[in-house]
Amino acid sequence: MATEPPSSGPPPRAQRAWRAACPGCGAPVEFASSASASAVCSFCRSTVLRDGATLRRIGVSAELFDDHSPLQLGVRGKHQGVPFSIVGRLQYAYADGTWNEWHVLFDGAGADGAPRAAWLSEDNGAYVLSFDLPTPADVPPLAELHAGERRLIGANAWSVASVVRAKLLAAEGELPRPPLMGTEFTVVDLRSTTGEVATLDDANPTQPAWSVGQSVALSSLALSGLRETSEKTLQGRTVPCPSCGASLSPKLESTQSMSCPQCRAVVDLNSTADAVGVDLRYYAQNNSGPGGLEPQIPIGRTGRLALGDDGPLDWQVVGYMERCDLPLPGTDDEDDEQTFWREYLLFNRTAGFAFLVDAEDGWSWVRPMTGVPQVNGRGATWKGAAFRQRYRYAAKVTWVQGEFYWRVRRDERADVTDYDGPSGGKMSREQTGSEVVWSLGRTIPSTDVAKAFNIPAALHGAFSRDSSPLSGLSSNLGTSIGSGGSSGLSQGVIILIVVLVVVVLMARCSNDDCDETRATFGESSAEYQQCLRNQRSSGGYHGGGGSFGGYSSGGGGHK
């Protein structure tokens, strides 16, 4: 990431500032902007309001949820050549996680002579720089808006990306208005075909707030003064698994769900408003238990890949999931064969999250888009590139391991539409309840993936799709792998068992119509085993689907 050289002293101070003593503890509270109406004392966390030449204490802010953000108060940067400082922060929560709004103050004044301020929204590593604007007269009641619909607001066409209920958790630093702590309100994110992001919220019931911005990359802001830690870990934070009692040690503060390394139960780490570890909700996965195969890329492994415009970055595998398709009734693919695929959740400190997808047609990567494409029938256009719809189906989560920044639910489903584009480009639309996420990616050779994550050459064949999903393997092998302390079996022994099972299944079939599938994907692949099962039962689905996936909340909208 391109950053300014670190300075030898503290960041430059504002040319004009106003300072007074906190009425709660006496510590100095400084205002760099005359437009700032309130601040949060960094010592006692009192929320103070400017009242002439004095400060008035109006409340106390909760402790901030210390996440993995590289940003902090005092960070300096540039946007379109204009220097700015981060002077404040608001931290919000909704049902599936948290996000930050950083108060940005630009040097100098605007054309009207007033200070120039903006919000740098941070949601799971995606960033949007937006500005508060007068609310358009044609804004509809927020209760009427639903994810996926299109609305004309302020003479522009917008696609509703999400509608959530949220509340302000905590605040720090200098703010343009007093924070309203704990009050729940509705937040609507909207996206345009030009890449703009707009936000409506009714935190003030008498006047909805309206802001408009664009997605930005931290690497484009010439930042200095970032947190020095290369990654944020939870020192000493461990909780017992509510299923088996094993110790769970999440590595990221933003983790909402994780799987138990011993019993494979999926634990909701944010299922209680009290201390973590009290009354945690969980569910046992089908076919869970020790002794199953591990993901082909081990959880925790780091690889260097170029996933988009950021160039080569170090990506760490923090989560793994398997999904299958459930074709939508009434579509052309309703009678198609069911397909399984795998998704690795990757994390980079400055670039956020991405997905590495291992599907029947090879490997690809995907990252959330900020805007929405122009959709016309089965075609879609984004930044001049034409995409064509390939599949439309429902996707269901069948198995997870590792950590996730959203709450993974049993048999979690999403309505998915996949598009193919030029030069291996891929685009996908996923809708889960009150949220729609568009993602953009590209195919990637399996050899590049294996090389990036230092996979031994002897296993490169499995990377070419000759491998079984963890859930499918457990259901086929039952206790032959999961009993008798077999967790120490070598990979060669496990592969031999899989091959033997496939041979037995083949012997039971009088007419094997799966030779082409076996030749394409390998004897131990999920596709081949599914073909054998379908052949025995003469039921199920037939054909393609499920070639692309990935779920991501938010995408960095200003909420």
UniProtKB/TrEMBL annotation:
Pfam families: DUF4178
Highest taxon above the source species: Bacteria
Residues that span the membrane, as ranges: 489-507
Annotated InterPro entries: DUF4178 (IPR025235)
UniProt keyword annotations, A-Z: Membrane, Transmembrane, Transmembrane helix
The keyword Transmembrane helix appears for this protein: yes
Residue ranges constituting the DUF4178 domain according to the UniProt record: 72-216, 314-445
Protein name: DUF4178 domain-containing protein
